[in-house]
Design brief:
α1 runs parallel beside α6, α8 crosses α11 and α15 runs antiparallel to α16. This protein has an eight-stranded mixed β-sheet with strand order 3-2-1-4-5-6-7-8, with helices on both faces. The chain has a two-stranded antiparallel sheet with strand order 9-10. The chain is of the alpha/beta class. The chain is built from 19 helices and ten strands.
């Protein structure tokens, strides 16, 4: 019997394309799907003539794999389906075999599964995969993490099928132990939420505030894709804005209600848990939630219309929108890397942030020209606290500020909602503020709850309480947690 290098379970579009990608690069793959008819259709259709075998049972798939160790990759829906599939596979596998989850699983589920499978000697890997259907077929960004003993047996396959940069570098490397791979993919998706919202806001600014024509806006996005805003999402936006039908732009026939699958929400929840100010990405998630209130929004638009203030347009409104989009995009990346830094400290992950930026330079949805600069920034200073204070980025923020502020101000005066851009600017101003109003906030907490406070004239870590209501009691509830 001819044996395969790896087995792939799940023949939805991503699974099929990943199998075809592997076969195109010289690997022999055995494919399995719960519906046998789907396996037959795949083998007799897209996989015909390729080094791809079909299996109609899990036991049959395992019997077709080279050993040891046998490599099995799950491309199934995240959640209980993964657990059910693992339960069926464990009796068929042996100690040292490798099981990979290539779906969008929550990183804590990956942590749990790795620990459970380690008890029976199975090496578990949770790998983020980005690039959508096209990436899976032609070369995705891969973010594997979990049991590091598995990596030497996966590296050749994963780095061969991944996207590669112009310099030939694979957009795939080992991320870290436990759920690190899926955590990094989650943050990737959060940044993706932020990028998409920012681009939609830039479109609204050009359309509703600058009053530009649809053709001009499409040309602007195409031009931006050739400059410092160059990215996959700008590229596809330029294409979307040229698609027309009889009534006009196709995008105008699409209902303005955005869906979501949960990874952006997970990113925001984790940021709250870790006390990291992920303001832009969280606003992008809320913007999608607000979009779903379509009927309520239509009613409110008639009952509480905006009272616009005449806008004094700058000499070049397009440049202002460009600067606002670029600056806000950098804040989105900055916040994402801050979240990964906080998670790495809590989970004891040794994340290489420069390497992570490298993984995202090709194949993935958030690939952009900025990532090379981010990679270089972390190579210069591995423990960089925030991209805002890195000299190259700090200089660029300084140059972008005037246009960024004008664009946000114009939107506010015109009654056009730009939650991501405006929250990015608020984060920027908050992070660079030597003095905030939080001392008054902490005084309020101490006043009503005896939560205590630190003093500017005493060392950090010493806490004090004032008897604000002169009750004669000086008990305090304990020091606060920032």
């Amino acid at each position: 019997m001819s044996h395969a290098d790896i087995g792939v379970i799940g023949l939805a579009v991503m699974g099929q394309n990943l199998v075809l990608n592997m076969a195109d690069h010289g690997f022999k793959v055995v494919a399995y799907n719960r519906t046998a008819a789907k396996v037959t259709a795949f083998i007799e259709g897209p996989a015909k003539g390729k080094s791809i075998l079909g299996a109609t049972t899990l036991a049959g798939m395992i019997s077709m794999l080279n050993s040891p160790p046998r490599r099995v990759m799950l491309m199934v829906k995240a959640g209980h389906v993964v657990d059910e599939m693992i339960a069926q596979l464990v009796p068929l596998l042996e100690a040292g075999d490798i099981l990979i989850d290539g779906g969008n699983s929550h990183y804590k589920d990956t942590e749990r599964r790795q620990k459970d499978l380690a008890r029976v000697g199975i090496l578990y890997v949770g790998s983020g995969i980005s690039g959508g259907e096209e990436g899976a077929r032609k070369g995705p960004s891969l973010m594997p993490g979990g049991d590091a003993r598995a990596w030497p047996h996966l590296q050749n396959i994963f780095q061969t099928i991944s996207a590669h940069t112009d310099r030939g570098e694979p957009c795939c490397d080992w991320v870290g132990n436990g759920g690190a791979g899926h955590f990094v993919k989650m943050v990737h998706n959060g940044i993706e939420y932020g990028d998409m919202q920012l681009i939609a806001e830039a479109w609204q600014l050009l359309r509703l505030v600058a009053k530009m024509s649809d053709d001009d806006i499409a040309s602007i996005f195409a031009r931006w894709d050739g400059g410092d805003l160059s990215s996959y999402l700008i590229e596809i936006t330029a294409d979307i804005l040229t698609r027309k039908e009889k009534s006009g732009l196709l995008v105008d026939s699409i209902l303005d209600v955005a869906g979501q699958k949960g990874t952006g929400k997970w990113t925001g929840i984790n940021a709250l848990d870790l006390g990291t100010p992920l303001t832009l990405i969280t606003e992008a998630v809320y913007a999608r939630s607000l979009s779903t209130l379509k009927d309520e929004r239509v009613q409110a638009s008639h009952l509480v219309p905006a009272i616009p203030i005449p806008v004094q347009h700058s000499i070049d409104a397009v440049q202002d929108v460009h600067d606002a989009l670029l600056a806000s995009k950098m804040i989105s990346y900055a916040q994402g890397f801050m979240l990964m830094r906080a998670a790495a400290a809590e989970q004891n992950w040794s994340l290489d942030f420069g390497a992570i930026a490298s993984l995202w330079r090709g194949g993935c949805i958030i690939r952009s020209g900025l990532l090379e600069h981010i990679r270089e920034a972390f190579h210069r200073k591995a423990d960089l606290s925030c991209l805002m204070v890195e000299p190259w980025f700090a200089d660029l923020f300084t140059r972008l500020q005037p246009g960024w502020r004008r664009a946000v101000s114009s939107a506010i005066q015109s009654g056009v909602a730009i939650p991501a851009m405006s929250s990015a600017l608020c984060f920027f101003d908050g992070y660079r503020s030597e003095q905030s109003g939080a001392n008054l906030l902490q005084a309020q907490r101490d006043y009503f709850g005896a939560h205590s406070y630190e003093r500017v004239d005493r060392p950090r870590g010493e806490f004090f309480h004032t008897d604000w209501i002169r009750s004669g009691a000086f008990a305090k509830s304990g020091s606060y947690t920032a």
